[in-house]
Design brief:
With about 300 residues, the chain is α/β, with parallel strands linked by helices. It has one domain (about 5-160, about 195-240, about 280-300): Rossmann fold (3-Layer(aba) Sandwich). It has helices at about 10-15, 25-30, 45-60, 80-90, 120-135, 145-155, 200-205, 240-250, 280-295, and strands at about 5, 20-25, 35-40, 65-70, 90, 100-105, 135-140, 160-170, 185-195, 210-215, 220-225, 230.
Length: about 300
């Protein structure tokens, strides 16, 4: 089944060119299927790119998925038109009475700020409380994961001596865990961040398991034992050229930025990047969708 997105969303044309199944809401209304309802809380400045990346990951499963887009209405985005926001997005207060089978909270380029100094932190706390009560499972990405670990467990993030930047190998702590059915012994995922949460701080949480770890990048995936919350420190959703764009953007700004590790052929930025993470990321999200489908109630109002 395809993922169902708002009619006219730019991701639709992009994904159709890739032969990825998507369906707009007008067509979906003609089908009598209990879909999964998923919300994407998009905190990234590159709204359209992020919409497309996550729509791509949610597509192609045997389960029909409705996708709602949510933004922080207390902060005016600078890199996207408000016309796009008004047409495709909802504020958290507009969906406060709605239930979701899954909620995805993206990363955000605010990790160097203390949580309390983020312009929309108060609204972010409201969103995190919403995920506590109104979803079967929530997936928190990068800064979104750090924010959730801070909000729910009081964990603090710490600065890295140098930006963690590149594509890193990870090992799985338990191959029996259903998130990793079909995985190889080692899998890769992109990371791009200036801060981290200490492994030992996550390890001391009694209801959280560390599921995937890298010697260089630290914890990548952790989750509560009941799978209510999944924390991902990396960016498996990234496109082939996302790190390339970040690298060249920072160079242009004159920032002290390392070459992204394990990314360009022969470590030459004039050559094409090597995509090492796409298959495992797609498999991970298919496993998440299947897991959510198994544990979410048939009547969504029972969430």
């Amino acid at each position: 089944m395809p993922v169902i997105i708002p009619t006219g969303l730019p991701a639709q044309d992009i994904l159709k060119e890739e032969n990825i199944l998507v369906m707009d809401t007008d067509r979906a209304k003609q089908q009598d299927i209990r879909p999964l309802n998923v919300a994407l809380v998009n905190l990234m400045p590159t709204k359209i790119a992020t919409e497309t990346q996550f729509t791509r990951l949610l597509s192609g499963s045997p389960i029909q998925i409705y996708l709602d887009l949510i933004y922080t209405s207390s902060y005016t985005p600078k890199n996207i038109s408000m016309q796009h926001i008004r047409h495709f997005y909802k504020g958290i207060n507009q969906v406060k009475d709605k239930k979701y089978d899954a909620i995805i909270v993206t990363g955000a380029p605010v990790e160097n700020l203390p949580f309390k100094d983020v312009d929309y932190w108060q609204e972010m706390q409201q969103i995190l409380e919403f995920t506590r009560t109104n979803s079967t499972t929530s997936i928190y990405i990068c800064w979104g994961a750090q924010a959730a670990l801070h909000h729910f467990y009081g964990l603090e993030k710490h600065p890295l001596p140098k930006k963690l930047f590149g594509v890193f190998p990870h090992k799985i702590t338990s191959f029996e865990h259903y998130l990793f059915h079909g995985f190889d012994d080692v899998f890769y995922a992109p990371h791009s961040r200036h801060t981290y949460i200490k492994t030992e701080d996550i390890a001391q949480l009694k209801d959280v398991d560390i599921l995937a770890y890298s010697q260089e990048a630290g914890v990548h995936i952790a989750a509560t034992k009941d799978m209510k919350r999944i924390f991902m420190m990396g960016h498996g959703e990234y496109d082939k050229y996302t790190l390339d764009k970040e690298y060249k953007r920072d160079l242009k700004k004159g920032l002290d930025i390392n070459l992204p590790k394990n990314y360009y052929q022969d470590d030459d930025p004039e050559k094409e990047p090597i995509v090492r993470w796409r298959a495992h990321t797609n498999l991970l999200f298919k496993n998440i969708i299947n897991m959510v489908y198994q544990i979410t109630p048939f009547d969504i109002n029972d969430i």
